[in-house]
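User: Some background: our group keeps a shared notebook of sequences we're curious about, and every so often someone picks one and asks for a predicted structure to add to the entry. Today it's my turn. The entry only has the sequence so far, pasted here. Could you supply the structure so I can complete it?
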Amino acid sequence: MKRRIITTGDGSKTIQIEDWDEQYHSKHGAIQEAYHVFIEHGLRLFKNDHIHILEIGFGTGLNAFITFLEAQKQYLTVDYVGVEAFPVSLDEVNELEYCSQLNANDQQYIFERMHQSPWEEHVSISNDFSLLKQKKDFREIRDTDLFNLVYFDAFGARVQPELWTEEVFEKMFRALKSEGVLVTYAAKGSVRRALQAVGFTVERLPGPPGKREMLRAIKK
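Assistant: Of course. Here's the predicted structure to add to the notebook entry:
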């Protein structure tokens, strides 16, 4: 499918799949969305801890990179698993210029290491951050009681409805530990009902720029 780099509402860039009219991040602001959904309403629930994070849709690596940056501020040790069926090329990643957008040029080597690290192999990105990238379909996930936090960042239900089903959310529920949290930019009623159907307690929260609401789900 044809892809191109576009500039979003906050000045940061993302990749657009033209055939789907779908972006890897919000066209209203890629970095703003990532911070609002996954950091503000996800990572910041945890302090001074060792946590395990599962990202559904590793994509451009933006969520992983900002998690690395923020984890240092929160004194977190992070084991990060990113699942991606169709990896982004290094050339595309370099065009996004996320390190300069985040005023983190001194951490460029970290961002590059995340993308250059081999798939299916645990890599120590730093003393407090490990990364495992898995190249597979989200529906192949079989983990049980492993993660504290899930970043559910799949392409939207409009273009990939099969990724927003009870079947997939049941896998997320099983993968989380008790009191584990799933956050997503999505707010559709069908998504909320599917999360509730598999056992999550779901709350609506204010959405990032361009969206009225988002969802956070907790495994009680």
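Suggested note for the entry: The helical segments are 30-40, 62-73, 90-96, 98-101, 108-116, 166-175, 189-197. The domain at 29-218 is CATH 3.40.50.150 (Rossmann fold).
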